[in-house]
Fold:
Amino acid sequence: MNASVYQINKGINKSIEFRGLKAQYIWWLGGGVICLLILFAVMYIAGLNPFVCIGIVFTLGGILIRYVYKMSAKYGEHGMTKKMARSGIPKIVKTNSRKVFLKLK
Structure:
């Protein structure tokens, strides 16, 4: 009998990573590139010089790439989601009465 050889997938439950970008930042970069493509089309149809359109899009693209990589390095895989969730928590809970606390038991 021949012994079967199976390949083991060691990447199960790992988040996607592409050239250092982790998880949701890949989608952010993709969305930004699509927005830049639409911006280029609008400027070109509006009659702007094509070289000016390319210059603007490349400049904004460079800024976008730098910003997304910076966020990916700073916040990590789930950090930005946690930061956005943390901003929804109120800093202060203000009440004018003690009745709320007296009913707690």
The mean pLDDT is 85.
